[in-house]
């Protein structure tokens, strides 16, 4: 009898409501309302009313429990998604702050320079430092031809060094400032020059042949501090 009852329940699995009524005699009549709104009547052999009523309640309770379990699962998944997003955002913020600290406080040591896409200004630079504009870049070296004497020092008294020294218009970029040149990296404004006015920067390289090799270039410039 239980199997027959469950088959009948599955036959009307799309029901929205189930009403159970005892008919006259020993049979039990019930009506189901399906999803499309049609009604279906059936008469089953004599079954105790309490048995069928309990079976119907079990089906309804089971469906409700399934919905509750799905809702709980969805909530857990949503909380896990939010936790992952928060962790990713925190990691990105920490990485950005580390990058800022390195740009502002990291050492700027002399090194051989070259223009590289790996040194292109990234989002940390663009979002956190002032863009001064697009500058005309020229290149010079510590030789007598470029400076009038081979032992010349920079305007602030340091030894000229490729990978660190640039000459600027101090009215635009204060001497001692850190500057990021898109494609070249971080430099320090240590020098000035008679022809270096406005949006122009003279980048120090090791020798005259390298200065000729670089020629003239244009790049976006950011003031680090």
From TrEMBL:
The GO annotation for biological process reads: peptidoglycan turnover
Q: Which Pfam families match?
A: 3D
Among InterPro entries, the record links this protein to: 3D_dom, 3D_YorM, Resuscitation_pf_RpfB, RlpA-like_sf
Indicate the secretion signal residues.
1-29
- Transmembrane annotation, as ranges: none
**Residue stretches in coiled coil:** 62-96
Which is one GO molecular function term here?
hydrolase activity, hydrolyzing O-glycosyl compounds
UniProt superkingdom: Bacteria
Q: Which UniProt keywords apply?
A: Coiled coil, Signal
Q: Where is the 3D domain?
A: 164-224
Gene Ontology cellular component annotations, sorted alphabetically = outer membrane
Q: Which PANTHER family does the entry link to?
A: CELL WALL-BINDING PROTEIN YOCH, RESUSCITATION-PROMOTING FACTOR RPFB
The protein's name is: 3D domain-containing protein
Query: Which species does the entry assign this protein to?
Result: Butyricicoccus pullicaecorum
